[in-house]
Every structure is written in structure tokens, then in C-alpha cells.
Amino acid sequence: AQRVTQPEKLLSVFKGAPVELKCNYSYSGSPELFWYVQYSRQRLQLLLRHISRESIKGFTADLNKGETSFHLKKPFAQEEDSAMYYCALSGSGSARQLTFGSGTQLTVLP
Amino acid sequence: DGGITQSPKYLFRKEGQNVTLSCEQNLNHDAMYWYRQDPGQGLRLIYYSQIVNDFQKGDIAEGYSVSREKKESFPLTVTSAQKNPTAFYLCASSPRLDGETQYFGPGTRLLVL
Hints:
The structure holds 2 protein chains of 2 kinds.
Chain A: E1 3-5, E2 10-14, E3 19-21, E4 24-26, E5 32-38, E6 45-49, E7 60-61, E8 72-74, E9 83-90, E10 98-100, E11 104-109
Parallel strand pairs in A: 2-11
Antiparallel strand pairs in A: 1-4, 3-8, 5-6, 5-9, 7-8, 9-10, 9-11
Chain B: E1 4-7, E2 10-13, E3 19-25, E4 31-38, E5 42-51, E6 54-57, E7 64-66, E8 76-78, E9 87-94, E10 103-104, E11 108-112
Parallel strand pairs in B: 2-11
Antiparallel strand pairs in B: 1-3, 3-8, 4-5, 4-9, 5-6, 7-8, 9-10, 9-11
């Protein structure tokens, strides 16, 4: 079975500080990994996916298959980054549906 | 925004009552999904559908039922068998069930009276 773990429920950083949201996964095959974000009073939306290797809003995430991790990073946090962040995994075959982690609430302090 | 709509925004259920949550999409997506969002537990998959007239149970299907009679519609019924229905319910869709990006609706909050 596939599993996604986000060990931090809450994370606070000061504006301008680096931020890293941790995500570890368990899956025997080749996964596709995503980060979704939910800003206050907005819909859940895709932030980035590993296959596109894009940097969105200054965030990047690298898939580390050796450590089975997909941590989300930003070198200089902004107050508008405050949101709930979910890591998600899609497998293959009968496991193509997304499995979400429990989420990390990021607060960027002024 | 737009593309996926959910109604109502808030729904109240009495004990022993079945209630139906609506989800409609105009994105021409084949796949649709229902999730339950509880504090501290993230999103858990209830049911999903790859195509019209087909649907599969997710991780927490007990006490729920769905139908997919039209491509654009995927209603969720919370039955009286669901003993802890109070939650935020999210509907999503994607072009296919194939690791594609999912697009989410605004959600329905269900409360038990």
C-alpha cells in the first residue's frame, strides 16, 4: 500500500527565512509526487509536481528515491506563503489515485 | 475558479437521515473523486470514478454511496450508516485516472444536528 507522511502538523518561520516542509513516502514502484496548497478561503490547488521540475512561487521540490522523500523548499519565505500544504503520491496500475499526507500548516510571521 | 461546483456550501443532517452532496464539472474530465477532510488527517479518498457508469471504493467508502450517470456529475450520498459524518467534503476531477493533476471544488461542510 502507498503511504505519505508529513511529520510536521504546524510550522512557523519568520519572513525572509528559509522554509522546508517535509514529505516522506512509501511505495514499491515508481511514484509520481505532488504538492497541493490550500490558502485561507480558497480551493485546494496544485502547487507543483515532480515530473515537471518547475519552480512555482519560488518553491522547489526534489524527488529523492534513496530517502523516499519529496521535501518542499523555499529560500526566502513570504507572508503570503502561509497556507496548508499537502504532499500527495500517485502510483501505477490499480494505485493511480492520489494518496495525500495529513498536511502541514505553514505560518510565516512578519 | 470555476469548472467544478459543489452544493450546498453547508448541509445539516438529522440522525438516521440520508443526504446527498452535489458535484458538477464542465471540464470534460473523465475521472472524478470524493474526499473527506478532517483536521489533522488530511484528505481521505471515499470513492472515485474513471468513467461514466463506473466507480470504485476508496479508503473510507463505508457509509457512503455514489453514482456516475453523467460525465459531468458525481453525487455523493452520506447514508445513515455513516456514524461520524461531520466533516468537510471535497470533490475533484482530472482528465484521466493516471497521475494527472486534480482540480478541486470549493467543498461542502456537513454537520449533524
